Amino acid sequence: MHKYSNYESHHLPHSAYRGALSKYIDPRPLAPTIQLAPDLTALKLPSILPCMDQLPLFAETRLPWTVSDLSRFLRALVESEPLLQNIWVRGEVSNFSRPKSGHWYFTLKDQSAQLPCVMWRSTAELQVHILQDGDAVEVHGGMGVYPASGRYQLYVDEIRAGGDGALFQQFMRLKEKLEAEGLFGAERKRPLPPQPKRIGLITSPSGAALHDILQTLARRYPLAQVILAPAAVQGEDAPFQLISALKRLNRFVQPDLILLARGGGSLEDLAAFNNEKLARAIAASHAPVICGVGHETDFTLADFAADLRAPTPTAAAELATPKLADLQAALSARTQQLERYSPLALIFRERQRLDEFVLRGGRALRQLVLLQRAALEGLQAGLLALSPHAVLERGYALVSKASGATVTQVGQVAAGETLQVRVSDGKFGVDVKTADERG
Amino acid sequence: MAKPTDIEKLSYEQAVLELEGIVKELEAEVGNLDQAIQLFERGQALAQHCAAILEQAELKVQELTGDGELQDWNEGN
User: Fold this and answer.
1) What span, in angstroms and rounded, lies between the C-alpha atoms of A107 and A117?
2) How confident is the model at residue A329, as a pLDDT?
3) Residue A323 above 80 pLDDT?
4) How far apart are the CA of B34 and the nearest CA of chain A, in angstroms?
5) For a tag on chain B, would you pick the N or C end, based on fewer CB atoms within 10 A?
6) Quick check: A228 and B40 CB within 8 A?
């Protein structure tokens, strides 16, 4: 206590004591709602200071302090010590009480000591987790003295789970183990049905998560049938109940999809979702599982084991289902496709096909006629070329016997025989004078 | 196509599936005009049925009891 040694100094002027002391009795802003009973004037500084001045003398003369003065002095000592105003203390909660005032009172203890603690309403209201006797916690705050009951106590402004570090270590170890087993492998993740007909839902029947999910599903995909398998989502029995719900759904309902959900909480609250057996049950579930535990930052083992992880229960419901509007759009697209085959459209199309046939038929016919005509003309030309008349016109003559046989060799005719000679414009008779003169 | 069942009894998924089948069949243009018109009419009825289901759908919630029974469940009970 060397730093208070100046109390014993007799050389400092009076005002220096006043300054030094006022520092000690300054109410700490740490606990604004407590009335640090007296203000400076009420401390009766003039009366106390001479006493202080004479501290050693007190001891000698045994001049008594008042209880109040001593309490104030102790309080000033404690509340001025920076070390004591910013401390973490760990222990077990006992005698927890929460009166109507909203302040929290409890005792923090270990095997051999107890520390009274107070948490003011303004801070207590912000606590997500309500303390319970037996909780292992670490609390932060500043020490104070409460003269009315003559005891020191800790004004708590922050509480964290005492086992946090240990719990997290355990979580990481378990996670690594299951990871090594391949329980969280991407290849294990099953595809989700695009339009689940039956949706199994595992959550607390009284939680906000249930309400959020049902509301989301009703708005988004009211075609679904929801089968709720209620289960505690925190507490000792929660893992068992969650696993049982999962198994019952798979066995009795065979849903297309299972949603596993709860609202947010501390690592401690989510302990059930870090249960090894639950993680294994999720991985073994026949129906794909979406895990929606309301915690944005931390992943639970259930999240890793699930086929899909959603940051909140609402998000889980959204990821599980298509939007009604999308379905309607898809349906109207189909309807439009169908309209292309309405009887009217079909008749138009048939009509068009008929027209096409007629057109094509006409074209083919014309083509045929042209072709035939060309062929005919070719034939005619050929015929014409072969006609003997053409030869006769060039000055040749055709000689035939009376029998009509055409004469092509001298041996065919005898002297005195009458033959027919045909020229281009007619014929005349000739008598053969000499025969058998070969050329 | 399977033999036509009563459209009213079809679920949304079943109806949509059949509707898709009909559109595909029509697109393939097999069969005669009469058949096509019949397909179209059934398709139209299916589409109306689907639209009505979407319009009227109401989320159905049931609770699975411990012994595997399903019972109606209302929020807040």
Assistant:
1) 6
2) 87
3) yes
4) 9
5) C
6) no
Tokens found for residue A364: 């083919």
Q: Is the ipTM of this complex over 0.85?
A: no
Around Cβ A324, how many Cβ atoms within 10 Å? 16
Which residue from B minimizes the CA distance to A338? B23
Return the CATH fold of A14-38+54-164: OB fold (Dihydrolipoamide Acetyltransferase, E2P) (2.40.50)
- Residues of B with a Cβ under 8 Å from any A Cβ are 11-13, 16, 19-20, 22-23, 26-27, 33, 36-37, 39-40, 43-44, 47, 50-51, 53-54, 57-64, 66, 68, 70, 73, 75
- Residue ranges of domains in chain A: 14-38+54-164, 184-322, 391-431
A343-388 pLDDT, tens digit per residue, is 778 778 778 888 887 888 778 888 888 888 888 888 888 777 777 7
Give the pLDDT band of residue A168 (cuts 50, 70, 90). Answer: low
Q: Within an 8 Å CB–CB cutoff, is residue A341 touching chain B?
A: yes
- Segment B4-32, tens digit of pLDDT: 678 888 888 888 888 888 888 888 876 67
Cα dihedral sign for A215, A221, A222, A225?
Answer: negative
For chain A, how far is it from start to end, CA to CA, in angstroms? 169
CA A419/CA A428 separation, integer angstroms: 9
Q: What's the token pair of residue A244?
A: 């049982």
CB contact under 8 A, A218 and B37: no
CA distance A141 to chain B (A): 41
Asked if B33 lies within 8 A of A228 by C-beta distance, the reply is no
Contact partners, residue A122, CB within 8 Å, separation at least 6: A32, A33
Shortest distance, CA B3 to any CA of chain A (angstroms): 20
CATH level 3 topology of A184-322: Rossmann fold (3.40.50)
Count of Cβ atoms closer than 10 Å to residue B4 Cβ: 10
Q: From A332, which residue of chain B is nearest by alpha-carbon distance?
A: B47
Measuring CA to CA, which residue among A46, A56, A44 is closest to residue A9?
A: A56
**pLDDT for A140 beyond 90:** yes
Q: Do B20 and A229 touch (CB under 8 A)?
A: no
Q: How many CB atoms lie within 10 A of CB A33?
A: 11
CB contact under 8 A, B33 and A350: yes
- CA B77 to each of CA A199, A206, A218, B63, B72: distance values in angstroms, whole numbers, following the listed order: 20, 10, 18, 12, 11
Which pLDDT tens digit goes with each residue over A189-248?
999 998 898 999 999 998 889 999 999 999 899 888 999 999 999 888 999 999 999 999
pTM, rounded to two decimals = 0.50
Exposed, middle or buried: residue B44 (CB in 10 Å: 0-12, 13-18, 19+)?
middle
Higher-pLDDT residue of A302, A55:
A302
Distance from CA of A248 to the nearest CA of B (A): 7
